[in-house]
């Protein structure tokens, strides 16, 4: 069945197909029954109880428009965003490209979204009963030295509406954003956001975990440095990882030369390496959410075995369909 749907969707430009899917799932969210059941494979991570360990990665539903529809596909958790303080158009179109031979996607979206206030209103209307994460970023017009201001604005606005909040400093499509992953810049950011989290937890009487999303392109030394910062600043979790700038797995294929971040099946080995290295450096101090390249139960299990406690999918679902979520949720064996 999905092969026919995919053929229809792949007849469109990637971003058109994406928007069509989001709007379709927005309508499906009103159905009084699930499209697919939510498989039970419970786990507890960051003090949160997940019905199953399979989540929707950020980027699929940037504005939280279709939370209930995505929920009907069986996800144990959903992460919406990336959202910024102000609405922004993102980078010029076209900005999404399929690498069909390799089941990959290149995007250079640039945090296109309707702004944090719109997302919060959509979250308020949602009836989804799983765990909801909100992924926050900075506006393109905000100088990198003022990035903290944007993250604090978003953190304050989403805090009471999220089960956890992800800080995205690893998109390759916002100028200089990835520089926040290094050294003093990372320490300053995490220290300030941890203090903000503490104040907000006292204000609302409810502790919401803070998660950092990092790039798969970091060297082993850089991963070790990030891990050290995460532990010192008592960050609650880490997503490993975002899209890659590497084109080694898709060299010579159509659209491989497009600028942006590569996701999908070609990212599998790189993201698994990131998880393994992180797990070694963290030594259980905080949980890892595995994201990037998951296209089958085998690839998902590889990430659990490497040290991940939860998994996130997006591009893999575009190629394999919603059955991937069901298969992962039912068959993944948690460590």
Automatic annotation (TrEMBL):
Q: Does the keyword Nucleotide-binding apply?
A: no
Query: Which residues does substrate bind?
Result: 62, 107-111, 168, 173, 242-243
User: What is a biological process (GO) this protein takes part in?
Assistant: 'de novo' UMP biosynthetic process
Q: Which cofactor does it need?
A: FMN
Topology in membrane: Peripheral membrane protein
Active-site residues, as the UniProt record annotates them = 171 (nucleophile)
Q: Which Pfam families match?
A: DHO_dh
Cross-referenced CDD domains: DHOD_2_like
What does the entry list under GO cellular component? cytoplasm; plasma membrane
- What is catalysed by this protein? (S)-dihydroorotate + a quinone = orotate + a quinol
Q: What keywords are assigned to this protein?
A: Cell membrane, Flavoprotein, FMN, Membrane, Oxidoreductase, Pyrimidine biosynthesis
Function text:
Catalyzes the conversion of dihydroorotate to orotate with quinone as electron acceptor.
Give the family, as the similarity comment puts it: Belongs to the dihydroorotate dehydrogenase family. Type 2 subfamily.
Q: How does it assemble?
A: Monomer.
What name does the UniProt record give this protein?
Dihydroorotate dehydrogenase (quinone)
